[in-house]
Design goal:
This protein is an alpha+beta fold and about 350 residues long. Helices cover about 20% and strands about 30% of the residues. The chain has two domains: about 20-145 and about 295-330, Double-stranded beta-helix (4-Layer Sandwich); about 155-285, Double-stranded beta-helix (4-Layer Sandwich). It has helices spanning about 35-45, 60-65, 65-70, 145-150, 155-165, 190-195, 200-210, 275-290, and strands spanning about 1-5, 20-25, 50-55, 90-95, 95-100, 110, 120, 125-130, 135, 140-145, 170-175, 215-220, 225-235, 235-240, 245-250, 300-305, 310-315, 315, 320-325, 330. Strands 1-2-3-16-8-19-5-4 form an eight-stranded mixed beta sheet, with helices on one face. The chain has a three-stranded antiparallel beta sheet with strand order 6-17-10. A hairpin with a 4-residue loop joins strand 14 and strand 15. The two termini are about 35 Å apart.
Length: about 350
């Protein structure tokens, strides 16, 4: 059974909002097998975003045999990415399934394409609800085309799109020293963990060798502790080879200025200019307006085209475990084409 559904949400909800038509839902009617998974894959390939409910999948062991039919066979899987320190969470749960990078439960995770911080990224994303939250915690999908069109309906949005097209977007991240006193509050890997060495020279050389992840790398000193800073500038649009159309790569917004606790992250335009407060406000408005999603039930699956859609997550309370699978590989050149 297919129908459409959407939730409108801004912050932690006191009660779940009423659904209105929008996002495609597939009711598995209490049973998932490989033939049904193949049919679901065909629907997903057509629509690019699909929430599968009523699966009767109890845990990862029930899901793993279905991954090939859903488009996540071992030879298709994407295994790179992930920046959360092992001290915060163990990444891999099973072959082809991992935990999502840690992000504080009380915060709203703004829309982003998965593995958005480097040139090589997966094309298909699978989210599996292993433990449904008691309150909040919905995963929203956002159409890149919808976001672009809504931005283009405002003068400020047109100017923002022009700057994004002209300059691209920069992602700047710092990896703290493992001994930094703020490391316990920073969920990114330390530079020692990220680059597998205690030697500063070797760590810098390792970072500089990762040309698809960093354009520039340098050391920053903070209170006697070294922080390995990295920067990459990426085009803001990606050409999908399936239809030769350009799709917006979702611009990020920093929750605050560069800080130790969030890894010195900054998201300026490629020319170094910071987005204006008006542009940030407009982005937040458009991101809220384009949320598509529904309440998680244990066993639910979301399939997402990682070129044409991005995902966000609302704040939540209590236990919540969403596992992620990734498949397919694309590469962004410095000119933005595949």
């Amino acid at each position: 059974m297919l129908f459409m559904s959407i939730f409108a949400q801004k912050h932690m909800p006191q009660a779940l909002a009423q659904e209105t038509p929008q996002m495609r839902i597939f009711d598995a009617q209490g049973e998932m097998d490989s033939p049904k998974a193949l049919a679901i894959r065909e629907i997903f390939d057509e629509c690019g975003a699909l929430h599968i409910s009523n699966t009767n999948i109890r845990d990862k062991n029930d899901l793993l045999p279905l991954l090939p039919a859903l488009g996540f066979a071992e030879h298709e899987q994407y295994s790179a990415g992930g920046r959360t320190s092992f001290s915060w969470q163990e990444k891999w749960v099973a072959p082809g399934l991992r935990r999502m990078d840690y992000y504080p439960p009380h915060l709203y995770l703004l829309p982003n394409n998965e593995i958005q911080y480097q040139r090589i990224f997966p094309t298909r994303i699978l989210f599996f609800c292993n433990t449904a939250p008691a309150m909040g915690g919905r995963t929203f999908l956002h159409s890149a085309r919808d976001v672009e069109q809504r931005l283009a309906s405002h003068d400020a949005g047109k100017n923002l799109l022009r700057k994004l097209s002209q300059h691209g977007m920069t992602i700047e991240t710092g990896f703290l020293d493992a001994a930094h006193p703020e490391k316990k509050n920073n969920y990114f890997q330390s530079w020692q963990e990220r680059f597998g060495t205690q030697d500063k020279k070797a760590a810098l050389e390792a970072a500089q060798s990762l040309k698809d992840e960093y354009d520039e790398c340098w050391w920053k000193e903070d209170g006697g502790h070294s922080i390995l800073m990295t920067r990459i500038t990426l085009p803001s649009f990606f050409t999908d080879k399936r239809d030769s159309q350009n799709y917006l790569r979702f611009p990020r917004i920093a929750a605050d200025g560069p800080s130790i606790r969030n890894g010195f992250r900054r998201f300026p335009f490629g020319n170094g200019e910071e987005p204006t407060e008006q542009e940030k406000t407009l982005l937040r408005k458009v991101y809220t307006e384009t949320q598509q999603g529904r309440a998680w039930q244990t066993g639910d699956i979301i399939l997402m085209d990682n070129i044409r859609y991005a995902h966000s997550r609302e704040a939540f309370e209590g236990p919540r475990e969403i596992l992620i699978g990734m498949a397919g590989t694309e590469k962004i050149s410095k000119k933005g084409a595949a």
